[in-house]
Design goal:
451 residues; alpha/beta; de novo design (two linked rop proteins); four-stranded parallel sheet; globular
């Protein structure tokens, strides 16, 4: 895995003024431990928050800065914080960090946890102070063994320095932090499924309302934020709202910077901290270096496997939620994937839908039965055994599993790339329909789920 925040030909250097998330990174890729982190102004924001700011002022500052969730949904962080109860008599509250980064083609949170574990801890400490939470959990993807090792070491360092535990910085505020490794389910990225898993239950999403801010872990008020989201908090507190907003490009409705990347057969696959509002073309050409010799860009996804495919002419879209929405999909995690001209879209989608089908929690019928149905149809089309009407059936499933039709957002994310692939590359799907097949009414073909 590559991490760089350098621009073309290494002309742009990371600095605290322009790269709040990554300027402390070491060139050798090793983790930044407590002494080095503090030498690079680490925990200065926490000291400011504890000494000079009321708890409600921290919440308002984050809200004014326009920080939004970096896990894919993009919900305003300060608004989410504001949902936590004001009643001071509720003295048991929890802060959860969603580090269950299982979105295919996404690895941004892994880099932060492996190389800058104290940045996440500082972000959680400030957030806990603002939310009056006395205990926090980092719910970590089980496969991230290096991140677990580094986070646990950083937690112990922070405890020994009086930055976690009892009476932090002499404030009378207590905050304990634990690293909890998950058992490896994609659905745990949904915040209420994460809560169920943390409690030792099956990882099914919960009905909302009540929202976690009212009834969360063990029935207590709980706030769940993504790793990258929490890592933005120290810089906002240290340097202020106006500075943070100034980082984004003109035209962007999202504030600050974002970890963005490109994978696939590009010359320089990697991860970069860039201002919201850069174009997909800048990301693809200036940072990822374009396609490798001998390959041509066929299409791309802007932010993980759960986002729709876009064509090369869409590269001029600005990389922020509204900018990507203008060309028909979502920003997602901001880590793009290039699909080259050697890839068959039916095979690619069959592979994707197999993953999403396997990772369904099975709670609601459209997702539990609809995703395996799509896999069965795609497999038949891939093998040249598709029947007339199969493409219409797939499009029907895209509609039946769309937003608002299922219990959580898993199925809508799963079928978004399918719908866009048929839209732009229908001929590749049509090529898999057997020429002698009889027409079958849409959604009438019998499918044995799981076969």
């Amino acid at each position: 895995m590559t991490l760089t925040s350098f621009g073309p030909a290494n002309r742009i250097k990371r600095s605290a003024e322009t790269h709040p998330l990554t300027w402390r990174l070491r060139d050798d890729g090793e983790a930044v431990w407590l002494d080095e982190y503090q030498a690079k102004n680490g925990y200065a924001a926490a000291r400011k928050a504890f000494a000079d700011m009321a708890q409600d002022d921290i919440v308002q500052t984050v809200k004014d800065a326009g920080l939004k969730g970096r896990g894919g949904a993009g919900f305003p962080t300060g608004v989410k914080w504001g949902l936590m109860p004001k009643d001071e008599s509720i003295n048991i509250r929890y802060l959860l960090c969603n580090a269950d980064e299982m979105e295919p083609n996404t690895w941004k949170d892994r880099m932060l946890m492996e190389q800058l574990p104290h940045l996440l801890i500082e972000g959680m400490l400030i957030s806990a102070r603002a939310l009056k939470t006395y205990r926090g959990y980092i719910f970590l993807r089980g496969e991230y063994t290096t991140a677990a090792k580094h986070l646990n070491r950083a937690v112990e360092e922070a405890k020994a320095a009086g930055l976690l535990g009892k009476n932090i910085l002499g404030s009378g505020f207590d905050f304990e932090l634990f690293v909890h490794t998950g058992a490896g389910r994609y659905i745990c990225g949904e915040e209420t499924a994460l809560i169920n898993s943390l409690e030792g239950r099956r990882a099914n999403p919960r009905s909302k309302p009540p929202f976690p801010a009212a009834v969360g872990v063990w029935g207590k008020p709980t706030c769940v934020n993504n790793v990258e989201t929490l890592c933005n908090v120290p810089a906002i507190i240290a340097d202020g709202v106006d500075w943070y907003k100034s980082l984004a490009r003109e035209g962007s409705e999202d504030m600050g910077t974002k970890l963005m990347g490109f994978s696939g057969k590009v010359k320089n696959p990697g991860l970069w901290e860039l201002p919201f509002g850069v174009t997909g073309r800048e990301l693809f050409e200036d940072y990822a270096g374009g396609m490798r010799d001998g390959f041509k860009l066929k299409c791309w996804q802007p932010g993980g496997a759960g986002t729709g495919f876009l064509l090369p002419e869409h590269l001029d879209a600005q990389m922020y939620a509204g900018g990507i929405a203008k060309v028909g999909t979502r920003m997602g995690t901001g880590l793009a994937m290039a699909v080259d001209d050697s890839v068959n879209m039916v095979s690619l989608l069959r592979n994707m839908e197999e993953f999403f089908s396997r990772e369904s929690c099975g709670f609601c019928t459209p997702c539990r039965d609809g995703l395996p149905w799509s896999v069965k149809l795609l497999r038949a089309i891939e093998n040249g055994e598709g029947q007339a009407g199969d493409i219409e059936t797939l499009l029907g499933l895209v509609g039946f599993l769309g937003p608002g039709k299922t219990f959580c957002a898993h199925a809508p994310g799963a079928v978004e790339p399918l719908g866009s692939a048929i839209k732009y590359f229908r001929s590749e799907f049509e090529a898999g329909i057997a020429p002698t097949s009889a027409a079958v009414p849409p959604l009438a073909r019998p499918i044995v789920v799981g076969a």
